[in-house]
């Protein structure tokens, strides 16, 4: 059940929803003309972020004339939340009137052509979380068996690719695979994922995208490749490396994401 919608957000009437992944929360402060901030713990019954690099608040304001509601920090399955809890923000955004959702994440590069600092436009995903956010009692008015043949909007992807070329922004496009975490994957797992066709791996995004599509929202997904995956990298993987790479490409990521939101 959704919590009571905060009056600050109902009055704001957001048009676009944005979820910022690990190390990417700076975008809300750097690019959005902020009208207000609402900590998650100020919403009764709402989860809170427990991971470093996730501020744990909604930031809402104007970006290029569009009203954007931004999650500065998300929730993860590995934090111990149920699927219905970690997808609650998407349902709340939809109830507030949001029809377009942009989901970002930090991911490990599986495709050998990817290097840390690359950006990947997600054109499909694989769910290796072992569960699905739609499991549970059927809800009146919600589609029980939503089609997932085009989770990430094809028309928007074409527009984003064309725009990125005009801006000389290097943009990969590939398949994102979600695991539960919080441990990083083993080299054997990465070899298996590569065989299956995955280009990048992470611990988020897929549940939010599934629920958004069930609700009829248009979805765009962008991964920041913050490290090479296990067995491809030259050393051990750390969360600190994720944050360092995200900070290194801060300006380029902000330019890309601002351009994407303008196209939406």
Question: What oligomeric state is this?
Answer: single chain
Strands in their spatial order, largest beta sheet: 5-8-7-6-9
* Beta strand count: 9
- Reported CATH architecture: 3-Layer(aba) Sandwich
Rg value: 17 Å
Please provide a written account of the structure.
The protein is α/β, with parallel strands linked by helices. The chain has one domain: 3-Layer(aba) Sandwich (Rossmann fold), CATH 3.40.50.1580. The chain is built from nine helices and nine strands. A five-stranded mixed β-barrel has the order 5-8-7-6-9, surrounded by four helices. Helix 5 crosses helix 9. It is globular and about 50 Å long. The chain starts with 6 loop residues before the first helix and ends with a helix.
Quick gist of this model?
The protein has 264 residues and is an alpha/beta fold.
Topology:
Blueprint: H1 7-12, E1 16-20, H2 26-31, E2 33-39, E3 57-63, E4 66-72, H3 83-86, H4 88-96, E5 100-109, E6 119-128, H5 154-166, E7 172-179, H6 187-196, E8 200-202, H7 206-214, E9 218-228, H8 239-248, H9 250-263
Key terms for this structure?
264 residues; 26% strand; alpha/beta; 9 helices; 5-stranded mixed barrel; single chain; Rossmann fold
């Amino acid at each position: 059940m959704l919590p009571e919608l905060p009056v600050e957000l109902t009055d704001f009437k957001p048009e676009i929803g944005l979820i910022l992944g690990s190390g990417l929360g700076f975008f809300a402060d750097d690019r959005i003309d902020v009208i207000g901030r609402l900590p998650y713990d100020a919403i009764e019954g709402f989860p809170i972020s427990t991971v470093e690099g996730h501020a744990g608040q909604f930031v809402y304001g104007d970006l290029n004339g569009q009203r954007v509601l931004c999650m500065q920090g998300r929730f993860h399955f590995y934090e111990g939340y149920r699927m219905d809890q970690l997808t609650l923000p998407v349902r709340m955004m939809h109830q507030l009137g949001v029809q377009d959702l942009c989901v970002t994440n930090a991911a490990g590069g599986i495709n050998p052509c990817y290097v840390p600092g690359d950006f990947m436009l997600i054109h499909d995903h694989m769910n290796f979380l072992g569960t699905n956010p739609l499991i549970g009692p059927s809800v009146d008015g919600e589609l029980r068996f939503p089609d997932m043949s085009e989770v990430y909007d094809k028309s928007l992807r074409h527009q984003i690719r064309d725009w990125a070329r005009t801006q000389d922004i290097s943009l990969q496009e590939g398949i994102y695979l979600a695991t539960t975490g919080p441990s990083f994957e083993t080299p054997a797992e990465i070899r298996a994922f590569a065989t299956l066709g995955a280009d990048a791996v992470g611990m988020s995004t897929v549940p939010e995208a599934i629920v958004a599509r069930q609700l009829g929202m248009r979805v765009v997904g962008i991964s920041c490749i913050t490290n090479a995956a296990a067995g491809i990298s030259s050393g051990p993987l750390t969360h600190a490396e994720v944050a360092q790479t995200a900070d290194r490409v801060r300006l380029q990521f902000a330019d890309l994401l601002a351009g994407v939101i303008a196209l939406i």
